[in-house]
Design brief:
Structural class: mainly alpha
Oligomer: single chain
Number of helices: 19
Number of domains: 2
Shape: globular
Largest sheet: 2 strands, antiparallel
Radius of gyration: 22 Å
Strand content: under 5%
Length: 464
């Protein structure tokens, strides 16, 4: 019955595509897949991981039939959760749910508290750009959706991945969902660049920083996302047996690195350097170290001049304003004094939107401070910074522990890649993103979920 329903929805979606366009086909195809997911939640987890990198872009409809929140990702998420709990209810003893670590709960409580505080000030925010390219006033509902419920989707999917692992199923297929998502993202961006006819020199210009705005994410965000994909796929491939599947993962890792480079984000360039440097420093086998150095030298030799020019922008003249893209003078210096108006608990998530300097026009009208560190102090204060530091340290320890102790080299490589994702956030967070969940970080959170699942499974085995 589920298969018949899925095929019917797929055929209906294809038929409607001929009459009404792409979105009807997507919607009805997702409905069909949703029926299948109700009977197999594992399929839902795989599809959700495939779709997560596109959930914050314009490549997936934000709403259907004018209903906010009704989109393919949310429909699949609801079907997957229902399918999981249905299996849990009807297969007593066969499905085991994974408990959430206490520090993770504390971290979630901190995010909820920040969203609660910010909800009282959100309506004073500067005007926000909507998906239609129009400016509109911030409402409390939209604020809570943006800063709390949308990031919560990422964490729920990560927990579903943990459950997938905990119940003894081979979750290696989830890594192929990451590889496929990487390939799709690279294909979309390169196709656009080819069709637009933009040259590398134009893309490297400081005036071209919004050339990827059509996708719904800034180049810095895409750069961080691609680098995290690159880290996970590279280190996982290093841990695999030498066969064709390993080559496919290496190829996907290469596509992720090229995607990061094509954003022409200097933060992405620095992130690529972090992944490469960590790889070279931690390799203990001469063959791996030698191969890495050879690849690095070949890439450096073949790298077009446009990438070098973009990476070194402002360095020759030692122009701090150019190096920081105006962040220091036009954003950070205006926001820093506001930190001390509420140094302990901050002003709530996304507080840059209603910062006095922002409302008065004294700084660039931005929705976030373009620094995860400054944003953490502004939003959650010193208390929040301590909690976030402790949580990320615990995540790092868990990933490194599994990297050392897991019996399967495939998973050891994957968890090492997850640890590198944390380093990427720490480095690229200097000029962008946040220390609360965002869609550019989705890969890191999925790996964390897999780590929780494996830790639970290993503890179960140890108890026996």
């Amino acid at each position: 019955m589920a298969l018949a329903g899925g095929m019917l929805a797929f055929i209906l979606g294809a038929f409607l595509a001929l009459l009404g366009g792409v979105f009807p086909a997507i919607v009805f195809t997702v409905v069909g897949l949703g029926l299948l997911v109700l009977f197999n939640y594992r399929l839902g987890v795989w599809l959700l991981i495939l779709l997560l990198p596109f959930a914050a872009t314009y490549l997936i409809p934000r709403q259907v039939l004018g209903i906010t929140g009704l989109n393919p990702v949310n429909v699949l998420l609801a079907a997957t959760v229902v399918g999981l709990f249905a299996a849990y209810a009807f297969q007593r003893g066969r499905i085991v749910l994974v408990p959430i670590p206490k520090l993770f709960l504390l971290y979630l409580a901190l995010i909820a508290f920040g969203a609660f505080m910010g909800s009282f000030s959100a309506e004073k925010s500067i005007l926000q750009l909507n998906p239609q390219g129009q400016y509109e006033a911030m409402t409390r509902t939209r604020y809570l959706l943006d800063v709390f419920f949308k990031p919560l989707v990422i964490l729920i999917v990560a927990w579903l991945a943990a459950v997938h692992v905990r119940n003894g199923d081979s979750a290696k297929s989830l890594i192929w969902a990451i590889a496929l998502a990487t390939t799709i993202l690279f294909s979309v961006i390169t196709t656009y660049l080819v069709l637009s006819g933009l040259s590398l020199q134009v893309l490297a210009s400081t005036r071209a920083r919004g050339f990827l705005s059509w996708i719904g994410m800034h180049a810095n965000e895409l750069g961080l996302m691609a680098n995290m994909m690159f880290a996970v796929l590279l280190y996982t491939a290093m841990g695999m047996e030498k066969d064709s599947r390993r080559l496919l993962l290496f190829a996907a890792a290469g596509l992720a690195a090229m995607t990061a480079a094509l954003t022409f984000s200097r933060g992405a360039f620095l992130g690529l350097l972090v992944v490469t440097a960590f790889f070279l420093v931690t390799r203990r086998r001469f063959t791996q170290l030698g191969l890495g150095l050879v690849v690095l030298l070949v890439v450096a030799f073949l790298l077009p001049e446009a990438f070098i020019e973009r990476a070194t922008t402002g360095l020759e003249r030692r122009d701090v304003g150019t190096i920081t893209a105006g962040r220091l003078d036009d954003i950070w210096r205006h926001l820093w004094p506001w930190v001390w108006d509420s140094p302990l608990i901050g002003h709530g998530l996304g507080s840059t939107m209603w910062a006095p300097a922002n409302l008065s026009g004294a700084m660039l009208p931005v929705g976030h401070p373009h620094s995860a560190y400054l944003g953490l102090l502004l939003d959650l204060g010193l208390v929040g910074a301590v909690i976030v530091t402790i949580f990320f340290w615990s995540m790092w320890r868990l990933l490194r522990q599994l990297k050392r102790q897991h019996p399967d080299p495939f998973w050891r490589g994957l968890f090492e890649g997850g640890a590198v994702c944390i380093l990427l956030l720490l480095v690229q967070g200097v000029t962008d993103d946040r220390f609360v969940p965002t869609y550019p970080q989705w890969t890191m959170w999925i790996i964390f979920g897999l780590a929780i699942g494996h830790a639970s499974l290993i503890n179960k085995t140890a108890e026996k």
